[in-house]
Amino acid sequence: MKIVLVCAVLAVLATVSTSSIVKSPTSRASLYYGYVGPGDRLLNRTYVQKAAIPNTIQSQDVAYRGNFTTKITAIQVVEIGYTQWATPWLIAGGIGGNNVTIRVQSARGYGYYYVIDIWGR
Ligand SMILES: *[C@@H]1O[C@H](CO)[C@@H](O)[C@H](O)[C@H]1NC(C)=O
Ligand SMILES: *[C@@H]1O[C@H](CO)[C@@H](O)[C@H](O)[C@H]1NC(C)=O
Ligand SMILES: *[C@@H]1O[C@H](CO)[C@@H](O)[C@H](O)[C@H]1NC(C)=O
Predict the structure, then answer these.
(1) In ligand 3, which atom is closest to the CA atom of 95?
(2) pLDDT by residue (tens digit) across 29-60?
(3) What span, in angstroms and rounded, lies between the C-alpha atoms of 77 and 94?
(4) Residue nearest to atom 12 of ligand 3 (CA)
(5) What pLDDT, on the 0 to 100 scale, is given for residue 27?
(6) Are 111 and 68 in contact (CB under 8 A)?
(7) Taking a C-beta distance cutoff of 8 angstroms, is the pair 90, 80 a contact?
(8) What is the residue with the minimal CA distance to atom 10 of ligand 2?
């Protein structure tokens, strides 16, 4: 009986922690999608940086929106400097579209420093 109770409590804890922390599907420090082809231009370059805060996971979304003729061909989210084990991932739009949204999330107790390049026509 006691063991069943402990298991139930653990299950509840597990559910709470997975729903409160948005976990990325990949865990790579940098992210590369697509290829920069001839005629492609750098459409936008954005730097995102956050200093470490003890015991805290920080995150932010970076969106790029082109016009109706824009075609995104490559997305490069590159970590600058020493690794801080942060994770970027694609949450909306992407290659072949005219918009893209990248989420950058730090490891707990760390910061991050990225350059996000959007290439296309
Ligand atoms: C890139 O995007 C950021 C915000 O997303 C904007 O402030 C900046 O002006 C853009 N830069 C260029 C060159 O379009
Ligand atoms: C649409 O965006 C592209 C870049 O993707 C730019 O070259 C073009 O001038 C823009 N067109 C207009 C009408 O703003
Ligand atoms: C963003 O791009 C996706 C395709 O990558 C498209 O389906 C969607 O309509 C676009 N959203 C906006 C607001 O343009």
Answers:
(1) 5
(2) 899 999 999 999 999 999 999 999 999 999 99
(3) 13
(4) 99
(5) 55
(6) no
(7) no
(8) 67
Joined together, the tokens standing for residue 9 give 């409590």
Residue 101 binned pLDDT confidence (cut-offs 50, 70, 90): very high
The pocket around ligand 1, CB under 6 angstroms, is made up of 44, 46, 64
Ligand 2 atom with the shortest distance to the CA of 120: 5
Q: Do 78 and 10 meet the contact criterion of CB atoms below 8 Å apart?
A: no
The percentage of residues in the chain with a pLDDT greater than 70, rounded to a whole number, is: 77
Residue type, 43: L
Which residue is closest in CA terms to ligand 2's atom 3? 70
Residues whose CB falls within 8 Å of the CB of residue 103, separated by 6 or more in sequence, listed in order: 22, 24, 59, 60, 61, 62, 88, 89, 90, 91
Q: Separation of 49 CA from ligand 1 center, angstroms? A: 15
Q: What is the mean pLDDT of residues 4-22?
A: 43
